[in-house]
Specification:
Layout lengths: L12 E2 L21 H26 L7 H30 L5 H15 L3 H24 L9 H16 L3 H9 L5 H33 L4 H14 L3 H4 L1 H6 L13 H8 L2 H4 L8 E2 L3
Antiparallel strand pairs: 1-2
Helix pairs in contact: 1-2, 1-3, 1-4, 1-7, 2-5, 2-6, 4-5, 4-6, 4-7, 5-11
Pfam families: Metal_hydrol (PF10118)
InterPro entries: UCP07580
Protein name: Metal-dependent hydrolase
């Protein structure tokens, strides 16, 4: 696919929303409706963001030089959004740590995974970012599409997750478009083989590491063994079943002609922007609009 004929909507606006969320005590400790497993998986996900999103920025910016003007502008909006996400999740993680959670084991695992990736050529880091950005986009879609996922959660924490989800959808095509530009001279068969292999590897690490991280945090709340596994797997795969519900969107990544914007889900963004939380938020930063 040529980078001049990408399905990213020409009228898409990437809007860095410079939100600052609560910095005080995270009360209660089990902020997600008193649920040990729900609190644990969201805390485990948040633990990945400060370092992980800095890695995404670094990986994409490495291929910004020579990019078409439209894509260069998208990268600018992407990097600004991700930097703000890192800041806000670092603050959220400090709040979780202040309640007594030890996130160091989870953070060390992130550092290990990224250190291994960084020993390889920069195109590998970009491919990993492309795959992980698809993960975050489909998780964000499900989070915004189904209110059950944040039902009962602390209001400020839920606002943080919805805000983050909104921007992940908004910039979901940037890493993929950068990948297409960086590999524009590759045969299509090679491009597909590499992206498929990387996605399978990323999926394995994502599911294993997030599950292990959540179980570790549940252990810190005194829930261990079969009980912990049963509660977490039920929550992730059965009800509300976030991981199960993104399955079809995950499979689409491997189909010929895939692009994140094959599904235009900006209706979710419009619904978010119309929400009370978004209306009450500070004005966004200067918008970064795609060139038509």
């Amino acid at each position: 696919m040529s980078t001049t004929t990408l399905p990213t909507p020409a009228d898409l606006t990437i809007t860095p929303r410079d939100r600052k969320f609560e910095r005080g005590d995270l009360d209660p400790r089990l902020w997600h409706g008193g649920s040990v497993e729900a609190t644990a998986i969201y805390n485990a996900l948040s633990a990945t963001f400060p370092t992980g999103e800095a890695f995404f920025v670094e990986s994409v910016r490495a291929f910004r030089d020579g990019a078409p003007p439209k894509l260069a502008e998208e990268i600018k909006g992407f990097t600004t959004q991700e930097a703000i996400h890192s800041r806000e999740h670092a603050a959220f993680n400090r709040r979780a740590a202040d309640t007594g959670y030890d996130l160091s084991k989870l953070e060390a695992q992130i550092d290990y995974r990224l250190a291994v990736t960084k020993t390889k050529p920069p195109i590998v880091s970009l491919a990993a970012t492309m795959a992980l950005e698809h993960f975050t986009a489909i998780l964000a879609h499900e989070l915004l599409a189904d209110p059950k996922h944040l039902a009962g959660a602390d209001k400020d924490a839920a606002d943080l997750w919805r805000w983050h989800a909104c921007e992940e959808i908004e910039h979901k095509g940037v890493a993929y478009d950068t990948w297409l530009h960086a590999t524009r001279n590759w045969p299509r068969s090679k491009r597909w083989k590499v992206k498929a292999k990387v996605m399978l590897f990323v999926t394995r690490n994502f599911v294993v590491d997030r599950t292990a991280g959540a179980l570790e945090l549940m252990r810190q709340d005194g829930v261990t063994g079969f009980n912990a596994w049963a509660r977490l797997l039920w929550y992730l795969w059965i009800r509300p079943g976030m991981f199960r519900k993104i399955g079809l969107a995950w499979v689409k990544f491997f189909l010929p002609g895939f692009h994140p914007w094959n599904e235009d889900d900006r209706a979710l963004l419009r619904a978010y922007e119309a929400s009370a939380a978004a209306i009450a938020a500070p004005a966004p930063l200067k918008k970064v609009r795609n060139a038509a």
